[in-house]
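Single-chain item
Fold in token form
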Amino acid sequence: MRELIIKLLEYSDIKDLVEDNVRWALENRDMLNKEVFPSRPLGIVLEVIITRGYWRLWPKYYLIEKLKSYGVSMPSDELIINYDNLNLILKALRSLYEERKGKFWKETLESVSAFIEGLKRAKSLRNWISKLYDLTSKGGGWKNHEYFKGIKGLGIKGIELLLRDMGYFDRVPIDIHERRFLLRTGIALIYGSSSGDPATPEFYSEALRAYCEENLRGLEILGIPLNKSPGIIDWAIWYFTCEKESEDCKAICSSKPRCEICPLKNMCNYAKLRNVFKNG
């Protein structure tokens, strides 16, 4: 099954897109090592909390527009914030809650307030991120830690996404796109735990880890071994399967799979079975 990912990375510009993402994540990790509260990684953490792991993007845009009304200069689609301006984030969220009411804005304000308090205790964003990685790697217990207590809506996918984007490439932010791919190609069936629950993201992330470890030894991207980096392979799968989230989405193994043009069809269980049933 090694050829499956090799072919995937060769399709269109997927390898270039993945390499761009890897460089971006490595830059984030480098910023964490050089600065106490680097602006871009700080903004990424806030985005993950505010959008509930990018489940809802609209709160980020409301917040950015509110911050711009306070004279804060930033891109229209990326939250980049200095540590000294965190109070402005709280001011903007209070204003949005007063204007729009609702449980969502109340919980968002409380979560960001809790994050800022946790950040003060951690004394650096790197310490905050490292502790999150350590605790979640051990199987839980992070929610009641003093750095994270009170942060709502930060689920498994959001944590995995955040850590992967900070250069922890062993973490895998599974969503519906990756689930479809891993099921259709057979990776989930072959490498998923026999005692695991296919209804959980952990089932698929563990399957992808096991697949990478067994099949991708000797393969690298930018010098990073892929057998130890399922989070990098996750990027490749995402670009291959996503539909509208990015202009770079290929929408091949999507909700409406285009098996007829898929470069993996001769290696994919779903495509083979579909062809059998189609031809009787």
